[in-house]
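Translate sequence into structure tokens.
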Amino acid sequence: MSEKTVSIIVPVYNEEESVPILYKAIKDVMDDTGLQYEIIFIDDGSADNTFSLLSSIQKIDNNVVVISFRRNFGQTAAMAAGFDYARGEIIVTMDADLQNDPKDIPRLLEKAKEYDVVSGWRKNRKDPFFSRRLPSMIANYLISKVTGVYLHDYGCTLKAYRKEVVKNIRLYGEMHRFIPAIANWIGATFTEEVVGHHHRRFGKSKYGISRTLRVLLDLLTVKFLQSFSTRPIHAFGTPGLVLGGIGFLISLYLTYAKLALGYQIGGRPLLLLAVLLIILGAQLVVMGLLGEMLARVYHESQSKAIYTIRKILK
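Result follows.
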């Protein structure tokens, strides 16, 4: 397969009204650039006419690749499939709902000459405030604080990546929004670019406030992986030793009280606390050791995909 200069990845789920318009807009923009490109549409188990439309488009345009999932696996899995099959030196991701503007792609590509990751910033976002923008603002603040990678808009799908960055990243859960933070761990450079944002023209958003809770849980995972993915014994072993040490000191005191002072310690709550702390400390240390074993398995065997492909048209 010949290499392309740019790969544009578009996860699609029940977007039959948007697909023809989006395809034409991307094609017009990319043809004007004069660059070699491919558009990879990932049909994430759509239940409407989306796949048929994409199939028709692919038949008349060799620059289009269509990947169809057997069921809905979610946006992160769609992104992962796009990264796996992309052949471009620069990989651009964007939404299929026409809220991202393909006219911003050339500016991202220009920035990608200097940076490994170019993250879109929907400075004038057109979504409802309380249901979309406010939760996003809170999430962006928390993600920036926890990861140390400060971006205004982690949730903006419109981003550009250099191939060598995303090809080494494995995605799970809702991890696609954390790619800039993950890329930063491996030394990638990144910047932001203000991009346009439009009102949704067709259908309704597939995401709600409940997604924020999943993002927060994934943020805990990201923080753990960032700090302890290669040394989980430090995450569990340190508090285990502290708690076990406190329990041991309490038990020493109770032993002294029993043998030297003649106190009755059988019914004292302090005895139960000492035993509990020692057991809990031992369990945490064991969890750390098990984590060390799992970490090695994780880093040595990451080839299992998180999606199942039904068909690829190219």
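Note: Residues 100 and 237 are 46 Å apart (CA to CA).
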